[in-house]
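Before relying on records like the one below, remember that each one covers exactly one chain. Contacts with other chains, cofactors or solvent are not represented anywhere in the record.
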Amino acid sequence: MKKLTIFIVFLLSFFLFSQTTFANSTNQLIMINKATNQLAYYNNGKMVKTFKVATGRQNGFTPEGTFKVVNKIKNRPYYKDNIAGGDPRNPLGDRWLGLNARGTHGTTYAIHGNNNSKSIGTYASAGCIRMYNDEIRWLFDQVKVNTPVVITNTKQSFDTIAAIHGYNVESKLSKVSVSTKSPQPTNTSITINANTSSGKDPLFKYAIYDGSKWTTLKDYSSSKSINWKPTKAGSYKIKVQVKSKKSTKKFDDEKVINYNIFTPASIKSVKTSVVSPQPTNTSISISANSNSNQNNLFKFSVYNGEKWTTIKDFSSATKVNWKPSKAGSYKVKVQTKHKKSKKKFDSEKTIHYHVYDAAKVTSFTTDKTGPSPDNSTIVLTAKSNKDSNNLFKFLVHDGSKWKTIKDFSSTSKVNWKPSKAGTYQLKVQVKHKSSKKTYDQQKEINYVIYKKATIEAVQTDKVSPQFAKANIVVSAKNVNKDHLYKFLIHDGTEWKTVQDYSNQASYNWSPNHDGRYKVKIEVRHKLSKEKYDDFKEVEYYINKPVTLQQLTPTIREHAAGHPLTISAIATGGTELQYKFELLQNSTWVTLRDFDPSNTFEWIPPNESGDYTIRVLVKEKGSPNEFDAVLEQTYSLQ
């Protein structure tokens, strides 16, 4: 009876202490988590320290709930073995923080030191919480009487436990970062990120100082990031303030970082001292003007038709001299950037400049190396001595006659889009605009055009679904002898090539497990350089084997002449059908032919005796007589 009374008192005290929060006059809090054998000490809303502890060697030894420190004792004797307080042998150490746990008054349960430091971090005590002696001495000096103590067993963090028990944990910013490093140009989208190291349900406030005033970007909310897009250049300060949701302070913590914004450089004009065209070896002065020359750097480059060459790399100089020694159609480019810019350049402007010689073809090229598919846009480019007075004519021979793509003009580049397959001749003729010849020079190249491969559909000789190990022939519809075919299977995880490109337009597939598959055929012309010209794919299902698990009812004895509802439980397949049969004189008689319903009501005869019924099941459309069968004998009385 005494044990029962103690147990009831324990339950009541545990319920009361574990269900209530505390009124905390000390603004201190101690928490012990038995799951990790750790103790946390909070003061004024902040976690000050955590310690390793030892708790009860059985889970129920150390009580769980919300208690208080009701006394503080130095050098408490160990009465059981008559060991004086302060004695190195004293298992209580020399500091005692008594708890009012389980209806006691601080003399039974406590946080105390010990004489066995190896036990710390383990489950070793009879109910108290053990600490290292030097650590309990420190804690003893900090903790006030009536400080709440929460003992729990949980995977939650200490901040979460504190918040659950009504303790306001201040939020602390661990880091404020930006998505792009300072400096950045105006109108850059910058993400400001904030992270906390402590606190429950933190709220964040974001503000910007532009040199004259603070502006709130976003008032307190749970957002851990915000976008800022400054439109004006300047030296800014970014401030993030944080406070816990229940905090009464203006803020718990704040961080401020500096950030510089500059106006990106912008080219206004690029000019030359003499207008184009000019003969070779002419001294040409190139000058540039930007939005703020004194803050910007300039780079001058020239393109001679083959490559870009730097005349002068980035510097504060806004002018450079250029003396081309070869004829050609040039591009003169000026790039500018702010001296603080991290970009390759902020702005650029390109002008064309022609330096000429006598008209002559130096090259005739296509942007795509043949062969190419029909209806491809092929850029034909002719290069001459780049005399600005040169004219170009482009022609094509389709096997029967020459046709003009573009008559003489200053354009050295033209688009050609052949619609039919075949072997073509491409030709460019060049002449100076003052020439009286039909042309000064010409150049021809051959080019092959093929018809791009297409695939109409993916075919299978067996309709989906099928079962594992089935032999399924996958083939492309409308096969072409000039096409190559590649077969791929996706098993739900990844694509696998099962037959690489070849002129074989079919593949024998025997899946070894059930699942949802995708079957894909990629096709390309034998001349194609593409990964594929076209593809088609289909989904294909491989079902689990059909099995019959059980027939119900399982009870053998039933009343003769009374209806009996028989149900079959089957697995596998997708659209199962069920057939019910009765054994009569060694012959199976159909009670109900295949139907999607797995239930059948049988009206048994009035005669008593044993009757055997079987159920056959198969996948809809299965060529088999049945995929699974199960029988049950019933005794009618």
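The two ends are 58 Å apart (CA to CA).
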